[in-house]
Design brief:
elongated; 42% strand; alpha+beta
């Protein structure tokens, strides 16, 4: 009969036959593939098995403690019939937490101590024999006793033997005290030694002999990847060009090394839970009277209760069929799903536990940006080069650190905000020293108006001078601000003759205005900016930041 090939193993509970004892197998396994998420990882181990018919238990005792026991899953294929029952995971018991090297050292120390006990016993016996040689009954035993010369020699020999024996016993006892201290330290360390590994026990039932390969997948904490970028701007050509290189910076502290594995990084977040947090009702209540609150001695209650954080549950991710790669400048293969993007790194990769961050190139794009020189003259009259572009890929840009290069030179570091398709991205590339900016205060007045019902006023007027000292045109964006009020009696007015801004409330920031100016080589431009504040004379206003 042709053996049945197992395409996938399904988790089913298997009742062992009555009276049958399961046989334990400890197959050697290795990490085959890893999928890293921004907040965790999924690890796939592969191992070969050859089982006779009957009930068996596979014991994998080298899993990391960071493995999520609830995420353990077994699949595989082979020749024969095999059903998977329970999958249990536990930490080693205190009596099992032995460090083999420490145990071997402990055994050697105890053996040495026993050998010293034997040496001490032998020296004491030698000492007793010498003492018996010079006992009075031996020295003066009538006609059979020793003469004076022989007795003197016996006394000298016994004295020397006794001294040698006492010295040997003393040295042996000193060594034993040192051994006792070392033995106590090792035994205390073994008793307090935390478990280093997780043991998984997989119950199997083979209706017929089975031979094949199985995979064990599990989720791990203490692993993550974060995006980092290289942005290389070239301004020396006919048109500016921007190369944006995307990298994945991977860090893992799982306790197991990922050696020569197929590696994938995914944008899916697995530690945020599976459901949206529950929004509590927004309740409005009267505050208790001030006198009652003072008598109670308690602060006023907050009008709105903060929303409780949703409990996080770890999703179970499967990384068993991932193709992946070795760290290098070759780019990953992108798989864009409905809700996530995965980057399969070509080749094989090695990432040791706790060895620091490792950056892997996963993609790049060449972009034709729009360049502007942006300046905020009320804070700093230095203009900064800014590259703007629309993100044109389906794979989103995740927020991360950016290393900047301008015309081949390092230009600093910045951060990149998250962006999806068609979002505008802005990156600054350092000062533009060829655009000169001046910021001058033209007028600053305080006064009153009205004859009967007077009001107070305050006026500010500024002049911003721009000059393009480059041999190429420049587009300059100037940002400044107008006061913003939330009180009806305070009025903010624009002065006559000011330059109308191109944009108001820039990027949703209240009161922030901007002017966009195109300057030809050597050209200059003046921008006038100012405002008037007016409020009732009997009231005082708080100082406005940046009014002076």
């Amino acid at each position: 009969m042709k053996p049945q090939r197992l395409a996938a193993l399904t988790l089913v509970l298997v009742a062992p036959a009555a009276g049958a004892a399961a046989t334990e197998f400890r197959p050697a396994s290795r990490v085959e593939a890893v999928t890293v998420f921004p907040d965790g990882a999924s690890v796939t181990r592969r191992f070969a098995v050859e089982l006779p018919a009957g009930d068996h238990v596979l014991v994998l005792d080298d899993l990391p403690l960071a493995a999520d026991a609830g995420s353990l899953r077994v699949t595989g294929s082979g020749e024969g019939s095999l059903a998977v029952g329970s999958i249990d995971a536990r930490q080693a018991r205190p009596t099992e937490r032995t460090d083999p090297q420490a145990v071997r050292r402990l055994e050697a120390l105890k053996d040495e101590r026993l050998a010293l006990d034997d040496a001490i016993a032998a020296e004491r016996m030698r000492k007793r024999a010498a003492e018996a040689l010079v006992a009075p009954s031996t020295l003066v035993a009538g006609d059979r006793g020793l003469d004076v010369a022989a007795a003197s020699q016996a006394l000298a020999a016994a004295h020397q033997v006794t001294r040698d024996a006492d010295r040997a016993i003393r040295l042996a006892e000193q060594r034993q005290r040192g051994l006792d201290r070392e033995i106590a330290e090792i035994e205390a360390g073994l008793r307090s030694q935390p478990p280093r590994r997780l043991e998984a026990r997989v119950a199997l039932e083979a209706a017929a002999p089975f031979r094949g390969e199985l995979t064990l997948t599990y989720a791990v904490r203490d692993a993550r990847w974060s995006p980092v970028y290289d942005a290389r701007l070239v301004t020396t050509g006919a048109k500016p060009a921007l190369e944006l290189v995307r990298r994945a910076e991977i860090r893992q502290r799982t306790g197991e090394d990922w050696s020569d594995v197929a590696l994938t990084v995914s944008t899916a977040r697995v530690a945020r839970g599976g459901a949206v947090p529950v929004l509590p009702s927004l309740l409005v209540r009267y505050l208790e009277p001030e006198a009652m609150r003072e008598r109670a001695g308690s602060p006023p209650p907050p009008p709105v209760a903060a929303a409780p954080a949703a409990p996080a549950s770890r999703a179970q991710a499967d990384g068993g069929s991932v193709l992946a790669g070795r760290i290098g400048e070759s780019e990953a293969v992108v798989d864009m799903g409905g809700f996530q993007a995965s980057f399969a790194v070509p080749g094989r990769a090695t990432i040791a536990s706790g060895a620091g961050d490792r950056a892997i190139r996963i993609g790049s794009a060449t972009i034709a940006p729009d360049l502007v020189s942006r300046v905020v003259p009320s804070l700093d009259t230095t203009a900064f080069i800014e590259a703007r572009f629309r993100h044109g890929e389906d794979v989103p840009l995740m927020p991360g650190r950016v290393t900047l290069y301008r015309d081949g030179l390092f230009a600093g570091r910045t951060t990149l905000a998250a962006a999806t398709r068609e979002d505008e991205v802005k990156l600054g590339f350092g000062p533009d020293d060829l655009v000169r900016v001046e910021h001058q205060t033209v007028r600053r007045t305080d006064g009153s108006s009205g004859l009967i019902s007077t009001s107070k006023t305050e006026e500010r007027e500024f002049r911003i001078l721009l000059r393009n000292g480059a041999q190429t045109p420049r587009r300059v964006v100037v940002e400044d601000r107008l006061p913003v009020t939330e009180v009806q009696d305070i009025v903010v007015e624009s002065l006559a003759g000011v330059t109308a801004p191109t944009v108001r409330d820039v990027d949703g920031r209240r009161g922030i205005v901007a002017w966009t100016v195109d300057l030809a080589p050597g050209a200059t431009r003046e921008i006038r900016h100012g405002w008037r504040l007016r409020w009732p004379s009997e009231r005082r206003i708080q100082p406005v930041q940046g009014r002076s």
